[in-house]
Amino acid sequence: MLLLMPSALPQAEDPTPYTPDSDWLVYVLISQSSVRTYVGIARDMRRRLAQHNGLLRGGANSTRAGRPWDLGATYGPYSSRGQAQVAEARLKKCSGTARLELCASALESPT
Known about the structure:
By secondary structure, the protein is an alpha+beta fold. Helix content is 18%, strand content 22%. Strands 2-1-3 form a 3-stranded antiparallel sheet.
């Protein structure tokens, strides 16, 4: 079992500290090794980024090839997982670095 000291975790911008009743965030990761982005949702951004980078168990299979990842942007907070998933789906329709610029109205439009 790999134990990490808090200072050993990636230092991503963490707009809201995690608590069990934290709101959900939509995030965009940028690969340091390739020209790729990844969109996901999480309550605890530090933990999720560590998972994507292989420091903790539980990262998405599709992010293995792009390691290491940096946090490019976060959007939210959203009060429910469902709201975050809707925003995530809208953001995934954007491509590449447009995801960092929010695709302007992608998360605000009701369609």
